[in-house]
Amino acid sequence: MLDIGLPELIALVVLALLIFGPDKLPKMIQDVSRTLRKIRQFSESAKEDIRSELGPEFKDFEFEDLNPKTFVRKHVLDKDELGLKEIRNGFDLRSEMAEVTDAVNGRDPEPAPHSATGGPDLLKKKEPLRPGERPPFDADAT
Q1: Domain ranges of the chain
Q2: DSSP code string of 6-52
Q3: pLDDT digits (tens, 9 = 90+) for 100-132
Q4: Whole-structure pTM value
Q5: What is its main location (predicted)?
């Protein structure tokens, strides 16, 4: 939690003994633990009040879900109803970058195993438009 190891803990205990003394230290520990317990109880009661105010449809609501990373992981990546894992695995960025590098360096690109998909060859130079000709409409690009 706080990433405190054994040497740091021993140093804190020795420092507390030096500052508060052996006679006041037990009372200080009790006061700190009592305060932490009250803070924890206050936090839990506030969470329960919010859940009760939201109504029964939010009974499974977790405050950790308000973190965007947790929300995306829980609702998008775990269920994968949209097939996002398949889409993510379909990108082969290494071969794409190799093709671009070859094109920039003037080398003939090696045929990629996925080039038979029938997709447009983005490295090929397009023919210029004739005067008065409109560019093709791409609904996916808008």
Answers
A1: 1-56, 62-110
A2: HHHHHHHHHHHHHHHHHHHHHHHHHHHHHHHHHHHHHHHHHHHHHHH
A3: 888 887 776 555 544 455 555 666 677 788 888
A4: 0.40
A5: membrane
